[in-house]
Write a structure and sequence with these properties.
heterotrimer; A alpha/beta (about 325); B alpha/beta (about 325); C mainly alpha (about 350); A: about 325 residues; alpha/beta; 8-stranded mixed β-sheet; 4-stranded antiparallel β-sheet; 13 helices; 12 strands; B: about 325 residues; Rossmann fold; about 20% strand
């Protein structure tokens, strides 16, 4: 087993506000192997985008990493000074954000933005940079790349723009790409195109991907492993097939049940009563306990770690060793 | 059962030309967008018709045309036998407004942030003078809130104190205040998380069962549509390309665009079904393709498709607007 | 009407917490479910005053030393101006109390000054300090009144323009453009001059009225434009469309739905415009076409004192000038703070 490319250990992200400190991410740990696609799924407020931001080093102040470590290729990156982080970002870690409209500078041609990125991180001549940029655009499926490279972002449609953003993220040949809801703002038919493109290119370039999204369908199509987040914690993590077909955490079960399926009819969708707790109001013990249909006493007192549950790991006392023995 | 809502040849053209001065100086032509172009359908009482399509297909415009937020350029909307468009324009339309209501997509913008929930839900009651005393009004609002699963005490709070799903429920309560028969729902769950969406969809289905409501449900999410609808209409660039029973549409989609849409849905259960890759993007509505507007992306397009716009014909019990289907080619 | 709905959790209590900051996408998620159900019944929503003091605006105020200082100065000035009759040591306009022998006295800390007249006296024996307070009263009165008139006119026209659109909008905006192409002082001079010509034996109140109208005309355009922009945004929001679907008429929608949501920037503008209105009035009075000489404002005092500046009696003009600057500055600073405090992006 090769060393992980990215390792997050006990990460804790806090927001000091005038009403006390908000813990937005509470003791998160996971790793990504080189070339692997890890999905991070969760609902609004679960902290998935924040995890991505913390890894890239773009946490909005006053948010800060209060504890834990983020290791990239074995070296810590969470405590790097700004300049050093800037060198890591872009060269080793690429980013794709949700809105293609605001990810590109409307005042510069896409060619300029691409070559600027390439030349910042790789030591190549102008000509070479331009050649690489055109090749990237061709790989992302932009027709007539050599001609369109000198056009401005507003001259591209939404789907095309997102392809340019993917090209931009891959420009400096990073080892990891953090993609935060890359297809949410796109139409359904374009989503399918972009997702398959992302998957293909990353495999081709050997880049690992951390795909943050709320769309379980996208995860099913693209990822190797998936982490399900809830209230700033990881509820379940494991291979995609196992998490979707045999979820071990009651939250994941509820989540999968509430998604309307294309292949079967149900009169009523499974619903999880209540809502995700506010960050100021996270209950003691397991964060899901007020809504859990299988809650028992221990859940309300002690917070569970990620425990082995079949092929996945779930933060749920139902899978504690003593429980299984008893059952 | 007779059709409650009947729409015939409905069209809406928006004038998006540059201002007159610019047009004269820069010699630009006038520009129009045919947001809705000759749409016809009918909805039976107690049923749900879903309209699906991608952005720019005109489904939201159809919704707004039905409730009178836009004036149609052409075509008629009949509600329970009477011409709705004419009625909504005149003072006698107030009666009609009580019978049809709308639920919007964005839970954060559909409630006035400065009003208390009581005032928000009571607004239709006050406008149509449906309650005589303040006390009666408050009781009625309390009932409405309970029927969507909120507490009557919530009427004293402000919208920002609620989550997205709860706000959408407040919108539903407001829409039900006048005891309407027909609800137009414009992407009511698109902005909500999956588990919250499940709650809201369950409420909507339960209410429909209890009160015999008729829904026009707009969405871009085919899985949700499959869950709630009885009939489905697929729109592309302002035109209806397929209209049929839900079961038929999902089991045997006819129109190439419908097939493409169904193929594009990510397969969450990873059954390993094969997918044909999707081609192209939705064209610019200012400059739609000639003939059948789908022909640049259609694997079955021929010369006729480029020249002649297909009509919505009934073929084997399903309405399809496609030359290839009509000719039996697919 | 019984309902057999699935047991969806009812909304629960809220502590009126302000926005937390950009945590993920959720800015105001609901509190947790059944656990808080009991608490729900006990806590009622707090009243408006309680909400205000707990809110972000008050917090922003008490943590901003500049805002508090500016507010303090402004309050002191307004207090002195309003209660000048009781607070001022003398009444400079009561001829009976004037003593010519006390004229042209320097401020109390200078040689020759007297503690009876803290800031000195002018050529007629009037106490400068008292004159300041009475003068400030006139200045503030005219300033506030003209801002009020501007606000009413500007907001109404802006609402109409933004909501109705089309030709009405084009017409009103052209008027705005025309008005903006004239320097404000010129407009005020023009209106004032016309007013005097029309009513040569003007009663004092009428003179004030003309002055207030003149100054309002210079300021209403800002309100109209700001409100028009906000109205055009709000008009497309879904709560306005929901009201239209319900059947509410347009005027009611403008008044009850849109107006409360566009007033935020208007208050900021009003605060800053009070300062500029006072300065315009001072300029007009300095030029001799402002308030009548029997009720001098700060501007009049500055003008009168100007004649004595070069004969060495600097205090007669400098102190009114300083007072003017102080009022304008403190109001401006308050306006700046308010604008930043109300801007959701800067929070």
């Amino acid at each position: 087993m090769s060393a992980p490319l990215l390792e997050v250990r006990n990460l804790r992200v806090e927001f000091p506000t005038r009403r006390g400190t908000l813990v937005a991410l509470d003791d998160i740990s996971f790793s990504i192997a080189p070339g692997e696609i890890l999905g991070v799924v969760g609902e609004s407020g679960a902290g998935k985008s924040l995890t991505g931001s913390a890894i890239i080093g773009l946490l909005d102040p006053p948010g800060r990493v209060a504890a834990g470590q983020i290791l990239f290729q074995g070296r810590r990156i969470d405590n790097l000074p700004y300049e050093q982080m800037r060198a890591v970002r872009g060269r080793h870690i690429g980013a794709i954000f949700q809105d293609p409209l605001t990810s590109l500078n409307p005042l510069y041609t896409i060619g300029r933005q691409l070559t600027e990125t390439i030349q910042t991180h790789l030591n190549v001549s102008n000509d070479e940079a331009r050649k690489r940029a055109i090749r990237l655009l061709q790989e992302t499926g932009i027709p007539a790349a050599a001609a369109r490279i000198d056009q401005f972002p507003h001259q591209f449609s939404g789907g095309m723009r997102q392809r340019v953003v993917i090209a931009l993220a891959l420009a400096a040949e990073p080892q990891l790409i953090v993609a935060d809801e890359p297809t949410t703002a796109l139409d359904v038919s374009i989503q399918a195109q972009i997702i398959s493109l992302l998957k293909r290119l990353c495999k081709q370039h050997g880049a690992a991907v951390m795909l943050v999204t709320h769309d379980m369908g996208v995860i099913a199509e693209t990822c190797d492993r998936v982490a399900v987040m809830y209230a700033g914690r990881i509820a379940e993590i494991g291979p995609v097939h196992d998490v979707i077909h045999s979820p071990a955490h009651p939250y994941t079960v509820g989540l999968m049940g509430s998604i309307p399926a294309m292949d079967e009819e149900r009169e009523r969708l499974l619903q999880i009563d209540g809502a995700m707790p506010r960050l100021t109001n996270i209950p003691p013990g397991c964060a899901f306990n007020p809504r859990c249909p299988r809650v028992f006493d221990r859940c309300r007192i002690e917070r569970p770690d990620l425990l082995a549950a079949g092929n996945t790991r779930a933060a749920c006392w139902l899978h504690a060793v003593d429980m299984k023995v008893a059952a | 059962m007779s059709a409650l809502v009947q729409v015939r040849d409905l069209s809406k053209v928006f004038n998006v030309s540059a201002p007159w001065l610019n047009r004269v100086i820069e010699r630009r032509p006038r520009q129009f967008v045919h947001a809705v172009d000759g749409v016809s359908f009918s909805i039976e009482s107690g049923k749900t018709l879903a309209l699906v399509g991608e952005s720019g297909c005109g489904k939201s415009t159809v919704a707004r045309l039905l409730v009178g937020l836009h004036e149609p350029t052409r075509g008629t909307v009949s509600y329970d036998g009477t011409d709705a468009t004419a009625a909504l324009r005149s003072p006698s339309g107030r009666e009609l407004r009580r019978r049809m209501q709308m639920i919007f997509q964005d839970p954060y913008a559909s409630l006035n942030p400065r009003w208390k929930v009581l005032d928000i839900v009571a607004e239709p009651l006050r406008e149509h003078a449906l309650s005589t005393t303040e006390k009666e009004l408050q009781e009625r609002v309390g009932e409405l809130l309970s029927s969507v699963g909120l507490a009557p005490a919530d009427m004293e709070k402000f919208p920002h104190q609620f989550s997205g799903g709860q706000r959408q429920r407040i919108s539903i309560a407001r829409a039900l205040a006048t005891q309407p028969e027909f609800l137009v729902c414009d992407e009511p769950t698109s902005a909500l998380d999956v588990s919250v969406q499940a709650q809201v969809l369950n409420i909507m289905k339960a209410l429909q069962r209890e009160r015999g409501l008729t829904y026009l449900f707009i969405s871009h999410n085919l899985a949700v549509v499959r869950h709630v609808s009885d009939q489905v209409g697929v729109m592309y660039l302002g035109r209806l390309v397929e209209l049929s029973d839900k079961a038929q549409l999902f089991a045997r989609p006819r129109h190439p665009y419908t097939r493409m849409l169904l193929d594009a849905i990510p397969d969450i259960h990873m059954s390993g079904r094969s997918r044909t890759p999707v081609q192209g993007e939705v064209p610019n509505p200012l400059n739609p393709p000639s003939g059948c507007s789908f022909h640049p992306r259609c694997p079955h397009a021929n010369e006729r498709c480029k020249a002649e716009r297909p009509a919505l014909l009934s073929i084997n019990g399903v309405f399809v607007a496609c030359h290839a289907v009509e000719e039996g080619r697919i | 009407m019984s309902t057999t709905l699935p047991p969806v959790t009812p909304a629960t209590t809220v502590t009126p917490v302000g926005p937390i900051g950009s945590v993920g996408r959720a800015a105001s998620a609901a509190p947790s479910g059944p656990v808080a159900t009991e608490a729900r019944v006990a806590t009622a929503a707090p009243g408006a005053l309680g909400r205000f003091f707990d809110g972000d605006l008050w917090f922003s105020f008490r943590t901003s030393p500049v805002a508090m200082m500016a507010a303090f100065i402004a309050v002191v000035c307004i207090f002195c101006a309003t209660f000048a009759d009781w607070v001022a040591p003398h009444n400079p306009f009561d001829l009976a109390t004037l003593e010519l022998s006390d004229s042209r006295l320097p401020p109390a800390w200078e040689e020759g000054g007297s503690s009876k007249y803290l800031l000195g006296t002018d050529d007629q024996g009037r106490d400068i300090l008292s004159a300041l307070m009475y003068g400030a009263r006139i200045s503030l009165l005219v300033g506030l009144a003209s801002v009020l008139v501007s606000m009413v006119v500007g907001v109404s026209l802006g609402l109409l323009s933004g909501f109705v659109g089309g030709k009405v909008d084009a017409f009103i905006m052209r008027i705005c453009d025309v008005m903006l192409s004239f320097p404000s002082i010129l407009i005020a001079l023009l209106v004032d001059g016309v007013g005097r010509a029309m009513f040569p034996n003007a009663h004092e109140t009428l003179a004030f009225g003309v002055l207030i109208v003149a100054i309002s005309l210079t300021g209403w355009v800002q309100y109209a434009r700001t409100v028009r922009g906000s109205t055009m945004v709000e008009r497309n929001k879904e709560y306005v469309q929901a009201a239209r679907v319900i059947g509410v008429n347009r005027l009611r929608i403008m008044r009850k739905h849109v107006l409360p949501n566009v007033l935020g920037p208007v208050f900021v503008l009003a605060t800053i415009q009070v300062a500029s209105a006072i300065i315009i009035e001072a300029t007009l009075s300095f030029l001799g076409v402002g308030v009548p000489p029997t009720t001098p404002s700060l501007g009049t005092l500055i003008r009168v004192g100007n004649d004595f500046l070069f004969s060495g009696e600097w205090w007669i003009t400098i102190f009114p000038g300083a007072m003017l600057v102080l009022i304008a500055l403190s109001v401006n600073l308050l306006g700046d703070w308010l604008r930043d405090a109300l801007n959701p992006r800067l929070r």
